[in-house]
Input
Amino acid sequence: MKQAGFSWIVMVGLVWMQGAMAEGTKFRAEVNVPCRAVTQGPLSHWFGYYDKEQFDPSGRYLLGMAVDFDDRPPTADDTIRIGMVDLHEQDRWIDLGETRAWGWQQGCMLQWVPGSASQIIYNDRRDGQFVAVIQDAFTGETRTLPQAIYALSPNGRYAVTTNFARLDETRPGYGYEGGKDAWGDQLHPAGDGIVRLDLKTGESKLILSLDQIAAFQPQETMEGAKHWFNHLLVNPAGNRFIFLHRWEPVKKEGPRWRTRMFTANLDGSDISCLADHDMVSHFIWKNPTQILAYTRKPESGDQYHLYTDQSDTVDIVGGEVFTRDGHCTISPDGRWMLTDTYPDQERMQTLMLYNLERKELVILGRFYMDTHFKDQSRCDLHGRWSRDGQRVCIDSLHSGQRQMYLLDVSRIVR
Output
């Protein structure tokens, strides 16, 4: 049916998901495409954020994490297992190691190293320090880098990162327990901020300090506030990256924290502020020069906006469809937007595809999340594309336990 210039496409045929609880319980999922659980109990499994490579280049192996609890924030003493699912061998779980630096939302930044068919990278805590580990998933060979990573460049040479101990204090659930912020008593230290890490040599360099960003077009609400960086992501060309600058105003009026969205060169130069109206949420690079982000603008309100880097060009995306924030990402061919919602009044999370050219919305499914799982222990769907754009993997609690599910979207995106 047609509405307001766009199309709704609801796939025919309801698929009751493998792993759903027995009929009559509140745990359920309503799925409109072929779908299967690729992990199962007794352990809980998940991957986390939507902006990292979960599938290996061949599409056979799917990274994930496992833990024996589901419903509370992690402590410094909690260790999780790292592994991968062999999708060609009855979804066999292959254990790869463990880590002590993780959170429910972004895990331990586990992902495949770009340009490699065998190497993975993840964060850990060793001797009270947050580090990164590069590991060959098939031989087990490892090497350790002196700092934890946040986002990788597409050539696999560099990472950009920030202070996870500070992030744990200012934005619980995104930093890591068990660390110590050397600048914890400073509001915007000159010695702390965004660091570029050479994955080959281990050399690191502070490329943008919190003091620098706090001095960039300062706002009244920044007075006396503590500042931090969050959500770093390098563009597909590897020459610029995006980051959020956040602070919590002393006067408790309006949003708990304020946010600005910036881009910069990979050496920290040529800073560009793209959004500075207090609210910036999830984003993704659409291509090397455009960013899709759920933000607030005075003239259009809270919307998915498409920003052109280093310019004032901003367009609304799916304004007639999307009324709520979600975790957005773009298909490998650039034609489809994949996103989700937080639980609605029925506690159902919706997973959707949106054709950016035809303005068609496809509802892939709805997944239940009980009210018991909230705040840090919630489980967002965080849809992740396979590299060929034919499948999507999500995390879901609809069975009552956190597990990973694989959806076949090939009929839709062809």
Remarks:
- The chain has a mean pLDDT of 93.
- The chain has three helices and 32 strands.
